[in-house]
Amino acid sequence: TTLTLIGAPTDVGASVLGASMGPDALRIAGIARAMQARGFDVRDQGNLAGPGNPQAEPASGFRHLAEVAAWNRAVYEATHAALQAGQLPLLMGGDHCLAIGSISAVAQHCRARGRRLKVLWFDAHADANTPESSPSGNLHGMPVACLLGHGPAQLTRLAGPEAPPALQSGQITLIGVRSVDATEKRFVNEHGIEVYDMRTIDELGMRAVMQAALADVDQDTHLHVSFDMDCLDPSVAPGVGTGVRGGPTYRETQLCMEMLADCGALGSADLVELNPALDVRNQTAELAVDLLESLFGKSTLMRPQ
Ligand code: DIR
Ligand code: MN
Ligand code: MN
Ligand code: MN
User: Fold this and answer.
1) Chain segment 40-80, per-residue pLDDT in tens
2) End-to-end Cα separation, the chain, in angstroms
3) ipTM of the complex
4) Distance 193 CA to ligand 1 centre (A)
5) Neighbours of 199 (CB within 10 A)
6) How far is CA 55 from CA 16, 35, 138, 161, in A?
7) What is the pLDDT of residues 141-181, one digit of tens each?
């Protein structure tokens, strides 16, 4: 398989600057060589182009809507082209707003082929704000709502003016959540989105949570993993803009990645919110590469399946 690395150096969806340096930090941490070692034919497409960060204040509920839309059109096109060419796209962020473009493209690709799509969203946050509920106007806090069809048309209709929402609420599962805004909570609840928050992980353990999250994933499912680095505890992943204490440990997260590899359904992924400006000697980028190695099948020993 050809693994296509697509850099989306954007921080226009966040208020903390620096995630735009994420793709290069991942390259410096050796992402291409690590993926080659996993047996992929790796093609690094370089970085997509898009508008700079105007550092503007939110306007009618959004910060940088035009810039976020421009970046997502580029992400949509690049992701869709990679999938159509039979490649496995790995989006290197950039802030999490870029998952609107990548997942809209994956959804369109799956729709055209009659394939089932399931998204696992690893994050400290629910990312399910709407402009009405968002306390910040930051679009990296809204991608889940946009993908379910709630948001501005520029972001909910990337696949075309007639396209249905990218996802139905039953197609997405959130894992690792521990920071949800008051009105965002209502959205998650009213849409019946499956969420394994930190309390559930504490009570059931990561293994049971991942078994439940993957219960409806089979060989005919296209699995998309959208991985926000702030999912991890900030003690292991300091290089993020909006860290929240009380996240999964290194080992718990490795277990997630290994169980995802075992399920054999991975078709595309985002690695987002890595912020090298806040990192310590690139350790969070190196951690991301460790996790991606496991996601793509690296294991300590041969294991009976
Ligand atoms: C907050 C923070 N819920 C917001 N969201 C973040 O601004 O909507 N998402 N940091 O990753
Ligand atoms: Mn996020
Ligand atoms: Mn987050
Ligand atoms: Mn709805």
Assistant:
1) 999 999 999 999 999 999 999 999 999 999 999 999 999 99
2) 22
3) 0.97
4) 17
5) 11
6) 10, 35, 11, 29
7) 999 999 999 999 999 999 999 999 999 999 999 999 999 99
What is this structure's pTM?
Answer: 0.98
| Cβ atoms of 125 and 140 closer than 8 Å | no
Phi, psi of 66 (to 5 degrees): -65, -40
Give the residues across from 195 on adjacent strands: 174
CA separation for the pair 40, 224 (Å, rounded): 18
The ligand with the least distance to the CA atom of 182 is 1
Tell me which residues have their CB closer than 6 angstroms to ligand 1. 96, 125, 127, 129, 134-136, 138, 140-141, 181, 228, 242
Helices (H), the chain: 22-28, 31-37, 65-84, 98-113, 143-147, 153-156, 182-190, 198-204, 206-213, 250-263, 283-295
> Are the C-beta atoms of 272 and 226 separated by less than 8 Å?
yes
Any bridge partners for residue 194, and if so which? 173
Neighbouring residues of 212: CB distance < 8 A, sequence distance ≥ 6: 196, 204
